[in-house]
Amino acid sequence: MSGQEHFDALIAVDARVEPRDWMPDGYRKTLVRQISQHAHSEIIGMQPEANWITRAPSLKRKAILMAKVQDEAGHGLYLYSAAETLGTPRDQMTADLIAGKARYSSIFNYPTLTWADMGAIGWLVDGAAICNQVPLCRASYGPYGRAMVRICKEESFHQRQGFEILLELANGTPAQREMAQDAINRWYAPSLMMFGPPDEDSPNSRQSMAWNIKRFSNDELRSRFVGMIVEQVKVLGLTLPDADIRFNEETGRWEHGPLDWDEFSEVLAGRGPCNSQRLARRREAHEDGAWVREAAAAYAARQAGRSSA
Ligand code: 3HC
């Protein structure tokens, strides 16, 4: 049986493809693309929330937010490790990100203006991530699917703590309630755009679904997410900034109002509200950490020298 035949047989029975299995170059390439982008998103995604760690309203909130930001760093490391099994060194992925050549999720290029944004990010952004990532637990590439299992467990904590922040504010003073509604108004549309362009404008979906990487289309997952938050927002006693949300009995899908895909394209082109700030901070962190990498490399070399002496 040729490598291609073995690969095709694995995909046909929805089995896992492992690092040592033969795989088409295109499969490997799209996995490196998606997994590295996912990892970059987790690492860049630490910035908007870290912005509020020193300004959290209580020690409890500060501790929870620190734990969440640390989780995101861990998610990035799991995903870089998964991408490395495909033969792409982490240094290369980091260099591509820092050079502005690599994508990361559009959502992290928006500013976090108030404490309520920590709630909106947890509830909406991590909620959208859960909708997108749970199916990825069944991705055909073993290391990716397995990394997703642990990440999804931690995402549910992220979503709940965000929802709790909004619930506290919604039941607080009128000013707090207004702050929560304002955050939802600003984060709603960008969180829907996290799922990617409309299906008809998604060049990667068809092949990605044929290879059992992507299980559902961008629009299908976006619809599921709308169906989830339209009920949850009632518990908050707040509203979603979209009068066009409705359930289409015929298609069985939740529909929503128009999204600004020109804005999405601008963000992807690096012209979003915070793109340059996010990359500058990432570059600075990489430079600040150079001494740690050098020290670790020197220590490893000395240990290697000792063990071979
Ligand atoms: N942000 C940035 N780029 C995006 C994007 C987004 N939200 N959605 C799509 N794109 C890009 C794609 O990368 C592709 O560009 P490329 O070919 O140059 O890479 C182009 O737009 C067309 O999109 P497609 O739909 O054809 O691309 P995909 O099939 O890759 O689908 C995706 C896009 C749904 C984001 C898919 O890549 C995916 O599921 N990725 C894994 C999940 C992920 O990366 N999530 C990011 C958020 S991480 C996060 O939420 C952290 C949490 O802790 C908060």
From TrEMBL:
One of its GO terms (molecular function) is phenylacetyl-CoA 1,2-epoxidase activity. This is 1,2-phenylacetyl-CoA epoxidase subunit A. Its EC number is 1.14.13.149. The lineage of its organism: Bacteria, Bacillati, Actinomycetota, Actinomycetes, Micrococcales. Keywords: Oxidoreductase. It comes from Arthrobacter jinronghuae. The keyword Oxidoreductase applies. PANTHER family: 1,2-PHENYLACETYL-COA EPOXIDASE, SUBUNIT A, PHENYLACETIC ACID DEGRADATION PROTEIN PAA. The gene is paaA. SUPFAM superfamilies: Ferritin-like.
